[in-house]
């Protein structure tokens, strides 16, 4: 049995697949512990793993530029977190270290841990390599504004690890360039957290009315009450049953819920998508792959995640969905800059939903991708790669 320590970023699309890979490793007799920010602790405990809280996550947050990413940038890049990580790795003495691809404070010292190390990317790698580089540079810039030194660039951070594990299909990504021989595409890891349980729907299983799932980011950094409400408004009065999950990011009391919407905090997505004709999403990689796995087309309203606008554009390119303006665009419009009005965006959503429901090619294109995903076990494949590091 080996002991692995996962240095984790508990973003909305990062923790669930990390837990899925950890589950596959524990089923093989290994042990996986998770070190991360305070918000991670209860979620990891609920999944049955041991959490190690990084108490210095926000110790230097006050030095970082104000904004929605202030605390996240402190956790991901600050010297206080880096120092604590070194202490944790030394005290835990794992056989191997697994590091989230969005955690520069951990990646910058992965080689110094003296342990086999794998970095995990929970979205496309080379299809969006410039975005990865841009996100890392932006985090480094915030760190420098806080008065600390610059971080290494993405290529240096990732390629310093023994293995780069990418949880998507190689066929969905761009080709691996020269010099990146340590990259392994393992396929999506579509793990539900314990709070996401199957739910009873208020409509009969043989109800002919089409069903839609509406699900946005579970990360508090991407909370957008207005996007949630205007999406509900756009789907209201359509001949459509809608299941909308808030994930605790938006409170039900903040919303005006249309009559055709069943609002819940959490729900297992697979049973709903299996019945669905449409998924409305922020474009997170996990939700997009889950919809494609079931051959269900989607409307993508990108959030602030660095891959979400790209995923929306890709669904359009593949003919499996329609992309609408995202949070950044709407935020600019709300601030008085040029951009679509709220009313036009509500109408655009309504039109997009009607178009997808009336056009069979969207589902046919999604079903082509479903055939490519059939039988792929990303968690097991990732566990194979992590185990291979120890040999």
Report on the architecture of this protein.
The chain folds into two domains: 3-188 and 376-390, 3-Layer(aba) Sandwich (Rossmann fold), CATH 3.40.50; 211-373, 3-Layer(aba) Sandwich (Rossmann fold). The chain is globular. The relative contact order is 0.12. The protein is an alpha/beta fold and 391 residues long. The chain is built from 15 helices and 13 strands. Helix 1 crosses helix 15, helix 3 (70-77) packs across helix 6 (129-145) and helix 8 (225-235) crosses helix 13.
Mean pLDDT: 91
Structural domains: how many: 2
State the separation between the terminal residues, measured CA to CA.
Answer: 13 Å
CATH architecture of the largest domain: 3-Layer(aba) Sandwich
Features:
single chain, alpha/beta, Rossmann fold, 2 domains, 7-stranded parallel sheet, 13 strands
């Amino acid at each position: 049995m080996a002991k692995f320590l996962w240095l984790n970023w508990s973003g909305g699309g990062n923790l669930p697949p990390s837990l899925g890979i950890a589950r596959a490793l524990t089923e093989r007799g290994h042990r996986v512990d998770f070190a991360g920010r305070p918000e991670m602790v209860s979620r990891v405990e609920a999944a049955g793993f041991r959490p190690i809280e990084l108490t210095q996550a926000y110790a230097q947050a006050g030095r970082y530029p104000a904004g929605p990413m202030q605390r996240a940038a402190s956790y991901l890049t600050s010297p206080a977190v880096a120092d604590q990580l070194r202490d944790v790795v030394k005290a835990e003495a794992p056989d191997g270290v697994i590091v989230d691809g969005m955690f520069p404070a951990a990646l910058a010292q992965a080689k110094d841990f003296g342990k086999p190390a794998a970095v995990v990317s929970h979205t496309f790698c080379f299809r969006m390599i410039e975005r990865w580089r841009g996100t890392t540079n932006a985090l480094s810039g915030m760190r420098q504004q806080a008065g600390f030194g610059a971080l290494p660039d993405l290529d240096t951070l990732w390629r310093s690890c023994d293995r780069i594990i990418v949880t998507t299909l190689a066929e969905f990504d761009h080709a691996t360039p020269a010099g990146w021989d340590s990259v392994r595409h393992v396929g999506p890891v579509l793990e539900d957290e314990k709070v996401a349980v199957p739910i009873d729907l208020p409509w009969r299983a043989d109800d002919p009315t089409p069903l839609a799932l509406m699900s946005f980011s579970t990360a508090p950094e991407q909370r957008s009450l207005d996007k949630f409400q205007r999406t509900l408004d756009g789907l209201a009065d359509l001949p459509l049953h809608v299941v909308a999950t808030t994930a605790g990011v938006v409170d039900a009391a903040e919303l005006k819920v249309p009559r055709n919407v069943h609002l819940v905090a959490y729900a297992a997505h697979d049973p709903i998508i299996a019945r669905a004709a449409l998924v409305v999403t922020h474009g997170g990689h996990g939700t997009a792959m889950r919809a494609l796995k079931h051959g269900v087309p989607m409307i993508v309203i990108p959030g602030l995640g660095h891959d979400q606008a790209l995923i929306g554009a890709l669904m359009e390119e593949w003919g499996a969905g329609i992309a609408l303006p995202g949070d950044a665009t709407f935020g600019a419009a709300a601030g008085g800059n040029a951009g679509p009005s709220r009313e036009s965006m509500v109408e655009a959503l309504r039109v997009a939903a009607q178009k997808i429901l009336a056009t069979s090619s969207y589902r046919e294109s999604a079903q082509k991708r479903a055939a490519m995903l059939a039988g792929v076990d990303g968690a097991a494949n990732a566990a194979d790669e992590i185990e291979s590091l120890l040999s």
